[in-house]
Structure formats: structure tokens, C-alpha cells
Amino acid sequence: MGRKKGSIDITLLIVVIILVLFGLVTLLSTSAYNGQVKFDDPAYYFKKQLFAAALGFAAMYVISRMDYHILERWAFPVYLVSLALSGLVLVVGDSINGSKRWLSFGPLSFQPSEFAKLAVILVLARTISRKSGKKQGILELFRILILVLPIVGLVGSNNLSTAVIILGIAVILVFISNPRYLPFLGLMALGVGFIAVFLGMESYRLERLAIWRDPESYEKGFQTIQGLYAIGSGGLFGNGLGESIQKLGFVPEAQNDMIFSIICEELGLVGAGILILVFLLLIWRFMVSAEHAQDLFGSLISAGVMAHIAIQVILNVAVVTNTIPNTGITLPFVSYGGTSFLFLLSEMGLVLSVSRWQK
């Protein structure tokens, strides 16, 4: 197995800390109005996010000190647990803002779809690494993808956006392990067909396409239009931190998936551009970790986390700028969401663990 060499990737750790601190400051600014109106506490969302960040950093530290090879034997049990939890949501899940995505344990709520992303990365990294060196045609690649279709189906029944992210992670990992274009194009066609079926299963998903094309003609296009107003009014340098007008009820639930529009309004194009550059720096460190990992399992873990963050950032920014239909995808480390924060930092711990074991 080899010996532990050196220390964790300090640059990656610093970038993660910068993103977390920026996210907390931005969330406090963005959510103050909603917190005051709904809970008579302008710091309500900030306090909950801070608690999640503390748990997340603790999980990141513990995981980063582990030998990630231990997780290889636990990949399938973790995946089975994620399947069970995702199925349980359909039976006894709680609905928040009309979406049935949460499980409650006393005062705490938990979103199994966030756990599913981590589980899929681990199980695919294990499966693909054990098939390394064997000839992999389109049928073999399809068999690997079939492994994640149950979780994609369970999550996609009430959370299409997360299902798309999980499917994207799977396709990218399969492509990285066997970069042959013809099988990959076949897998992309299957993925597009799978998404098309899900879009057609519920009328509200087709309605989102119509709203995307002409948001001004639909009442539900209000959020999109107000988000675009926020982006436009920010200009080059923004109106200043805490000076957003659109967060005062104009952009509904601004602290969630539309938070990037408030960042544009308060910090301008320059501030938003710097944030995107920091995300690019984070993705670069994932690539470095994947390239220098001790084995294929570690390399695929780093690549899987990279795919997760990259897909989610791209989709969130695309939604906020109305480049694609609204999908309800949050901005990593910035949008409000305790479960997301906890598992994002856990994934950072995994990559830091991989960085401890270099070739």
C-alpha cells in the first residue's frame, strides 16, 4: 500500500477556508431580511450555517487524517445506505417549500440526496479501479452506469437537479477511466434520453422550460426576472456589501439557489468574477490531487469531487443568469443548506486524505 508521505494539500485547504468564510459573510448579508421577517432574528440562517460549518470542518479533519484506502471496502455498504435513505424519503419524507426531500430526526433535518453524491463517488471509484486494465467497451461502461441508475431514479423522482448532478458525476468518471469518444457519445445519448423521460413525467418540469423561454409571461418567472435585475444593478463594482435591494423580498428565498445574483448586486461583476476564479483554483487543486494520487481509486475520488463541484457551480451560475431553466441547484459553500455544507466539507476531507498519499 505504501507509506504516508508529506502533509495535506495546504493550498486546497486555504482555498476551502476562503470559500467557507466568504459564504458565511455573504449568507449573513443576504439572509438578514428573511431571518428578521420570518424568525425575528436577522442572524437565524447564519447561525444554522455556522453550526453546519463547524460540524463540516470536524468531519473534514477526521476524514483527512484517515487512510482513504479504508473506504474502498465500505463503498458498497455506504451506497446501499444512501439507496435506503433515498427510498425512505419517498415514504416518510418531509416537504419543505413544496419539495419532499428531507428526513427529520428530532429537531434536525437531513437531505439524503447530498449523501448520495458522496456515496456515488465512492462506489464508482471502487468499481472502476477494480476493472482497471480490462477491456471496456460500451457494454462494460453501460454496466458500470447501471450501478447508479437506482439512486438516480430515487433522487430524481423528487429532485431532478440533484439526479442530473449524480448522473453527470458518473458519466465524467466513466469517461476519465476510458477516454474513448464513441462509447462516451453513446452514454451521453442515453443520459439525455434518461433526462428527457424524467422531464416528461411531471408537467411542472415542462412548465419550467416554458418559463425559461419567456419568464415575463409567467407569474413563476418573477424570481428569475428579479435575479436578473439584481445582476444588472450591481454593475462593475457592486453597490457594496449589505446594500442589496433585491434581497428585501424581491428575490424570494435569496439565501438559497439565487444567492449568486445578490453577490453580483452587492459586489458587482468584479466580485462575482473573483469568486468564480476561486472556484477554478479549487478545481485545479482537485486535478493536481487526481494526477498525483497513489492509485486509481484515489485519483477517481479526487476526479469525482472535482466533477461534483464543477457541475454544481456551472449549473447554478447558468440558472441565475437564465442561461438554462431554473433547477434549484445551490452554489457550493455559499448557498444556505446545512446538509450540503456538511457533505461538501466531508468531500474536501476525502481529497485532502488522497493528497497525503502521493506517488
Automatic annotation (TrEMBL):
Its EC number is 2.4.99.28. It is found in: Membrane. The keyword Membrane applies. GO terms for cellular component: cell division site; plasma membrane. It catalyses: [GlcNAc-(1->4)-Mur2Ac(oyl-L-Ala-gamma-D-Glu-L-Lys-D-Ala-D-Ala)](n)-di-trans,octa-cis-undecaprenyl diphosphate + beta-D-GlcNAc-(1->4)-Mur2Ac(oyl-L-Ala-gamma-D-Glu-L-Lys-D-Ala-D-Ala)-di-trans,octa-cis-undecaprenyl diphosphate = [GlcNAc-(1->4)-Mur2Ac(oyl-L-Ala-gamma-D-Glu-L-Lys-D-Ala-D-Ala)](n+1)-di-trans,octa-cis-undecaprenyl diphosphate + di-trans,octa-cis-undecaprenyl diphosphate + H(+). InterPro entries: FtsW/RodA. GO terms for biological process: cell division; peptidoglycan biosynthetic process; regulation of cell shape. One of its GO terms (molecular function) is peptidoglycan glycosyltransferase activity. Belongs to the SEDS family. FtsW subfamily. Peptidoglycan polymerase that is essential for cell division. This is Probable peptidoglycan glycosyltransferase FtsW. The lineage of its organism: Bacteria, Bacillati, Bacillota, Clostridia, Lachnospirales.
